[in-house]
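Interim report to the steering committee. The following record documents the input for Kynureninase (425 residues).
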Amino acid sequence: MTFQNTREFARELDSNDTLNHYQEQFIFPKVNDKRVIYFTGNSLGLQPKRTKAYIDEVMNDWAELAVEGHFYAEKPWWDYQERFAEPLSKIVGALPSEVTVMNTLTVNLHLLMVSFYQPKGKRYKIICEEKAFPSDQYMFQSQVHFHGYKPEDAIVEIKRREGEHNIRLEDVLAKIEEVGDELALVLIGGVNYYTGQVFDIKTITAAGQKAGAKVGWDLAHAAGNIKLELHDWNVDFAAWCSYKYMNSGPGNASGVFVHERHHNDPDLPRFAGWWGHNKERRFKMEPNFDPVHGAGGWQISNLPVLSLAPYLASVEMFAEVGMDALIKKRDHITSYLEFVLHEIDKEVESTFEIITPSNPEERASQLSVFLHGEGRALFDYLMKNGVITDWREPNVIRLAPVPLYCSYEDMYDFGQILKKGILGK
């Protein structure tokens, strides 16, 4: 398709968009009494209008049933998390038994590392990407300290080549081969939070396992955003947050994947708790742990149902839409945003450098843009004029045109506001 940077063309794209009506199912903040252009769904998704009803249902059951809500609520609390298995399995490409929800993201990654980071002898090193999200970096450092190693020795970062913004697949594979039989774990972000680069999960997983290591993924920026086939790709484990592309609310519950081949391994260590115990015998208060079959056996504590309710509202919306439809629009609207940026670039003296890969196979719903010749003042102008975006030092803005609630006309309007902010300074 030949794009045009006009309002009429953007409106035509919206009129042909089968997901366009979903915008009306979200609540948008307003700036200057006008609905914002929201580009920060990669940090916190907008609130779906249906969310309140799901929370109110739990609140009403609590008021009317109190403790009996565990068993007699419309959605009984004691198995509330089981409602996620089917829709989440489709979002991440898993068997229903391989997924569950619990805790928050870094907590879950720590718990999964109890099972899957088992350094022994000379096999103790962890491979991760350079400039991983800071929480992951802190996790790696504390985990290797816990096992008695020094981070500078045990943590191996895959670096970008000089002058490049993204990590090459061949460099990942070469580093895995180089570390070889010293490698215990590969744990990488499926989508890099800063650049928006999508990693080849299938190929990297196979390479890590061939080297004798376990391979896990932090899918914070991937779940609900990219096509995942965690079961078929033979991923050992993964975890993700729910509040970015899946719109579950700030700091909300995390999803977990554990491949079925690990479900019946009695030698695999884990930290146990009563919510991971045999469901049918959980309330018998038995002294010995008998794990639930599947990923649910990694649960520890009673689930926070009030937190799960908004997440359930969201995954049921995803079930309606389907990942294929989301990804089709994601690719198209991201390409249109890229086109708009290039068109505005021709009309101003500043230079926009998109550091996210141009190859659609290596990117998702994010463009990270270096604003050469501009600074924080332009970001402040965008925010004051109804464009909610994200600033990262030194002068990068991250733009996430989330397909569920961003429109093509939003992309056009953003370009005009951006141009005005540069020309008017």
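The mean pLDDT is 96. The committee is asked to note this result when reviewing the revised timeline.
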